[in-house]
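User: Hey, my collaborator sent me this sequence without any context and asked if I could get a structure. I don't really work with proteins. Can you help?
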Amino acid sequence: MKKISVIFFLLISISGFSRDATEVLQKMRDAQDYKTSRGEYLMTIENRGKEITMEFEWYHKKSEEDLQLMRFTSPPRIEDTAILIKGENIWYYNKRSNRVRLLSKSAKRGSMMGSSFSYDDLNLDYVDDFTGEIMEETEDYYILKIYPSEEERSYKYIVAKVRKENFIEESLEYYDDNEIRYKLMTTKDVKHVKGRWTPMKIIMTDLISGKVTLIKTIEESLDFDFYMEDSKFSEKNLKK
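Assistant: No problem. I've predicted the 3D structure and written it out in structure-token form, which is a compact way to encode the shape of the chain:
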């Protein structure tokens, strides 16, 4: 009887952890649950002693599907190059060739503009795209192990360190099929801007190549919950 009781309470404990992980993932999504947003950003790529800096604008709207538009404004050689995300589809517009291309599943796993970020990294929904479990809980953090729902992702799972204060990720560790940690994302200088918790710096490090990408937020450019037409996120609008 004692053995059965132990098993029973163990099952309750396991199911409780699973439920808590789902709740944490939901709160991570809720932390960015705004109708619309916009901002301006600086992206610096450091690789093998060389450094490249780009500037871009980012627009986001939650409609019937998740809508995102990233448009580069400098340097001049990539000005007006744009990336459009509508649900699971990602389009890339090259201003120099004046062509719009719908990315294949394999292309989504590739480097975004030569950075340490993949195109897939731009399009994560913690509730719809992941399942997870709580590995550890401290006074200030949840440590989650989260698995992508789709097999097409380039990673097997992610270990997420999440702040309890605001449910913003402090770090994401990416692991491949061989259980090797190959990429690390960290957030720095998280501020409460216009009623929203927002990291002012996001750093993605490729642990294999050593390439580091830093995205800095221009704080005064941030805006949330304003009116924006769905037409802004059309393939036609990419050719601005």
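In plain terms: The longest helix spans residues 2-30. You can pass these tokens on to your collaborator as they are.
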